[in-house]
Amino acid sequence: MRFLKFLIIVSILLFPGIKGCYHPNHSSVIKLDCTKISAVNKIPETPGIIIISSSCSDYQFEKSATKSALDIFVENYSNEFEMSELSVWGFLRDLKIEVSAIPRTVHAAYDLNGKFLNGKIPVSGLALRKDWIWVEIKTSQIWSSSLVHELVHIIIWRQNNVHGDPDHEGKEFSGWTKKHTQLIEKINKILLDAEI
Predict the structure, then answer these.
(1) Cβ–Cβ under 8 Å, residues 102 and 57
(2) What pLDDT, in 10s, does the model give residues 148-172?
(3) What is the CB-side half-sphere exposure of residue 192 using CA atoms within 13 A?
(4) CA distance 129 to 150
(5) Would you call 173 helix, strand, or coil by DSSP?
(6) Could you read off the pLDDT of 30-70 as tens digits, one per residue?
(7) What is the pTM of this model?
C-alpha cells in the first residue's frame, strides 16, 4: 500500500499535466458478530436514532456513514419541503433502523406508481411501523439501499399519523408526490458521489 501511494505521488510530481484521482475502496457497511460487537448502535448526534441488525451474524451500516447519510437527508428534505432541519429531525426521532443482507418478501405491496402487487413480492425496504424501518444491504454503500426511500415513508407517516403512504404516487393513499420520488433520486446521487 505504501508503495502504491509512493508511485502516485511520484507520478504527480513527474507528470503534473496528467489528471487522475485515487479513491481507496470505501465501505459504509460493517460485518457484525453480536458476540463481539453490540447489535444495537445509537447513531451519534441524532435524536435517539438507533441501528440494529436483523440477526446476530449479519451486516450493518457503519455508524458514521449512517450519520452522514442522515445529515444529507435532513438538509435536503428540509430545503425541498421548506421546513426547518429541526422539524425533519423531529419526524425521525427515536427511529429504529433495522438492516440485513438477507432479503425479504411480502405477500402484497404497491409499486412506485401505486399498482397493487399480490403474491411473493421481493422488497428491499419496509416501513414496519412509524418508528421502525427495515432496509436490505445490497452493496458496501448506503446509497444503493432503500434507506432514503424508507425515511420518506416515516416522515409521511408521522405527519399524517395514520399511514406512510404505501402506494407511493398512487391515488389510494395521500402524502407521497413526484417531488418525494425526485428528492430520493437526488439524495441517493449525492450519497453515491460522496461514496456513502
Answers:
(1) no
(2) 999 999 999 999 999 999 999 999 9
(3) 8
(4) 11
(5) coil
(6) 887 777 767 789 999 999 999 999 988 899 999 999 999 99
(7) 0.85
Q: Pull the grid cell for residue 177.
A: 408526490
- Catalogue the E-assigned strands of the chain: 29-33, 40-42, 50-53, 57-61, 96-100, 104-110, 116-123, 125-129, 132-136
Record the cell numbers describing residue 188, joined without a space: 441517493
As a residue count, the chain comes to: 196
* Of 111, 86, 91, 82, residue with least CA distance to 183: 82
Confidence at residue 117, expressed as pLDDT on a 0 to 100 scale: 95
* Buried/exposed code over 176-191 (b: 16+ C-beta within 10 A; e: otherwise): beeebbebbeebbebb
Torsion region of 51: left, alpha or beta (phi above 0 gives left; psi -120 to 50 gives alpha): beta
Answer whether 101's CB lies under 8 Å from 137's CB.
yes
Q: How many CA atoms lie within 13 A of 152 on its CB side?
A: 28
